[in-house]
Design brief:
250 residues; alpha/beta; Rossmann fold; six-stranded mixed β-sheet; four-stranded antiparallel β-sheet; 9 helices; binds adenosine-5'-triphosphate; binds magnesium ion
Length: 250
């Protein structure tokens, strides 16, 4: 298997609170990789550690053949240009309109000054997420689903090779959740971007992910294809899956 991201025995504590314990996983190139598990088990911390927003206490993180664990700030910024991150709550700047929100990383991170080029790239992306022409709208004028899509567009604007999504469907009704899941599939299939997503939408994860990792109190307790996970004998994994799918039927 060709891993684009690999973690080896990643551990992280906050004081007494041990959040990640020897987390080793491979995220295959061009896959959709889902991370599931109960609230507060370290899913967001795991992703923040991988993208360099947090430092692990021990363990290693690889981006293809490059060990990015010990990188200083300058190197880390160069590597992070390959990563995109779509936050749990979309995190758009409310004081800026949609166009300015999307242009922000181009101007601030890539230092692009050519207004025409920026405008074109923003318009292309809004077309691509099927929200053409909303450049002048303010984030608070958008629905929750639209905000999430704009958040994804902002993460895409830097042409990342790996896009991390932290709960892209949380807070959306099932129909909107489906459109966001479909957007993740398009990002993966049409743009060839590896997608790593944290999600509470278990049926969604089983439908779109190539592989799923189940995190429990800092440990990976199961990892594999959806078919492999659904055959897991681990009591907690079995329960979690059963409850998630039952909720769908009632
Ligand atoms: N910056 C921080 N400082 C101290 N503790 C933190 C910090 N960030 C996270 N934690 C702790 O790490 C643990 C795991 O948090 P994390 O946000 O990774 O959970 P999660 O699995 O993403 O949960 P949820 O599904 O609710 O988003 C929690 O106990 C949390 O309090
Ligand atoms: Mg979280």
């Amino acid at each position: 298997m060709n891993a684009v991201i690999r973690t080896e025995n990643l551990s992280k504590s906050f004081g007494e609170n041990v959040v990640l314990k020897d987390v080793s996983l491979d995220i295959p190139e061009k896959s959709i990789f889902a991370i599931i598990g109960q609230s507060g088990t370290g899913k967001s911390v795991l992703i923040k550690t991988i993208i360099g927003m947090m430092k692990p206490d021990s363990g290693r993180i690889w981006f293809r053949d490059t060990d990015i664990t010990g990188f200083d700030r300058v190197d880390a910024v160069a590597v992070r240009k390959h990563f995109g991150y779509s936050f749990q709550n979309a995190a758009l700047f409310d004081s800026m309109n949609v166009g300015e929100n999307l242009a922000f990383p181009l101007i601030e991170v890539l230092g692009i000054k050519n207004r025409k080029e920026i405008k074109k790239r923003v318009a292309e992306l809004l077309d691509w997420i099927e929200l053409p022409g909303i450049e002048l709208k303010r984030p608070d004028e958008l629905s929750g689903g639209m905000r999430k899509r704009v958040g994804v567009a902002r993460a895409l604007i830097m042409n990342p090779e790996v896009l991390f999504f932290d709960e892209p469907t949380t807070g959306l009704d099932p129909v909107l959740a489906e459109t966001i899941n479909n957007l993740v599939v398009r990002v993966n299939k049409e743009l060839g971007i590896t997608c790593a997503l944290i999600t509470h939408d278990i049926p969604g994860a089983f439908r779109i992910a190539d592989r799923i990792a189940f995190l429990d109190r800092g440990f990976i307790i199961a990892e594999g294809t959806p078919a492999e996970l659904s055959r897991s004998e681990h009591p907690m994994v079995k329960d979690f899956i059963r409850i998630s799918f039952n909720e769908l039927e009632t």
